[in-house]
Amino acid sequence: MSQVFKTIRRVQFRDTDAAGIVHFSVFFTYMEQAEHEFLLSVGLGVINEQDGQTISFPRVHAECDYRSPIRFEELVEIEMVVQKIGSRSVTYQFKFSCEGRDVADGLITVACCEFSTGSPVPVAVPDRFLHPLQDYLLDPQD
Amino acid sequence: MSQVFKTIRRVQFRDTDAAGIVHFSVFFTYMEQAEHEFLLSVGLGVINEQDGQTISFPRVHAECDYRSPIRFEELVEIEMVVQKIGSRSVTYQFKFSCEGRDVADGLITVACCEFSTGSPVPVAVPDRFLHPLQDYLLDPQD
Amino acid sequence: MSQVFKTIRRVQFRDTDAAGIVHFSVFFTYMEQAEHEFLLSVGLGVINEQDGQTISFPRVHAECDYRSPIRFEELVEIEMVVQKIGSRSVTYQFKFSCEGRDVADGLITVACCEFSTGSPVPVAVPDRFLHPLQDYLLDPQD
Amino acid sequence: MSQVFKTIRRVQFRDTDAAGIVHFSVFFTYMEQAEHEFLLSVGLGVINEQDGQTISFPRVHAECDYRSPIRFEELVEIEMVVQKIGSRSVTYQFKFSCEGRDVADGLITVACCEFSTGSPVPVAVPDRFLHPLQDYLLDPQD
Q1: Which end of chain D, N or C, is less surrounded by CB atoms within 10 Å?
Q2: B1-25, pLDDT tens digit by residue?
Q3: Count of A-D CB contacts under 8 Å
Q4: Chain A: residues touching D (Cβ < 8 Å)
Q5: Which CATH number goes with the domain that contains A75?
Q6: What is this model's ipTM?
Q7: In A15-32, which positions are buried (b, 16+ CB within 10 angstroms) versus exposed (e)?
């Protein structure tokens, strides 16, 4: 059964807007921060230098569905799983909630890229990433 | 034939990140700014008070596909059309380019809501919004 | 002897810019977050409603001296003291460091305001704020 | 008599916070954007590569005094002059107003640095920068 990565954030004042709620663009930075925390928690880095290669994961798609607003000082729980491991990409799925209330659902797809030439070249996800990612894969029979 | 709303932005230093490119979350604020410029350009407001009613448009969905990065000081062209007018929602479609290069495609769906009770109540898109929106509707036979 | 409020932050990717370092404007949001954490830690709120009054603290001055840059994923230690309690204002002093390295020094002065009429009216700092603030006052003989 | 560089910005929704006003940290990005527009307007760049040298201007000090709030969609006028040209630094002074109302005053001091070794090395402000800067110097007899 797949594991779920969980983290929590308190809404900061700068995250809010004049509607009194967290600005919709901020959910994307929350997602990226959860992804980075996850990578650290499983012993991987955001930028990975090894054997003369630099592997990192630029974003190719991001989306979010907003269900109810969150406000300054509220504690937001973020649950993250790996929705899909593609040949050269990974899709993370996020669920935001606040005291049991459904807040938002999001998705980020990152490309696995090698940067030693300066510009990103898509490559297969290296084995040392595959194993921890598979532990969090939503539906392992895919 | 549908009209296209066009605007342009110069990338500001704060829009970039340590990868040297515009942070992926920033495209969502670019989209919102284009939408607000469009509303002003057709004589509508972001927050519309009339006859004791306050009509505004909270976001319910946002997404973006990233095709090539943009950097500090580059000029980004943004083209926006109305992809769909729902009974109580509007979907805007955005195309980002930079000197002919395809940069990103995005989508924002907003709910049409009335706020006089304090919290948002979804309502049908008022007629005075429908007419300008229809001029920019991508495919009028839908 | 005055107490020092200490907190720590890991630099998030969105905090950085194309120079590869934390953008100078971000230090001000770090300061505000430290101030808010401090208020919570001493049992006060950022927005305080009591006896029909709403007390809050809009910023009237902010400044920062930058000594060395900080980068993505670094842990920043923030130390905060109360530099001055004025009749209707409070000045907080901040010291940023990273693994013993001096990073930045900042200052924020907030006005003590009452908001029940809608717009802020400067008022004397209420007693229930004075006591915890005095514990963190830099130089108690002032 | 010194010239004044003038620019104007419309407050974007993301610039605001839950107090309904532009967040205090945003004034610093407005200042930086005005500085960058000024450099472009006088034929200089933000990052200047010439004769194997790269000259740029990291911030060493920033401050702002807040006099009255500004809100979503308001047009903010920004006036900028050069307050001081040091041997290896430049201080810019900013005045924010909105329909004649005094909004804020700010100051940014940048160090003149050469980057060809990777890390910034303070250097004297090159002649080709001095001339345009002197045209905007607040008090030429200094």
Answers
A1: N
A2: 689 999 999 999 999 999 999 999 9
A3: 29
A4: 13-14, 16-18, 20-21, 23, 25, 71-72
A5: 3.10.129.10
A6: 0.95
A7: bbbbbebbbbbbbbbbbb
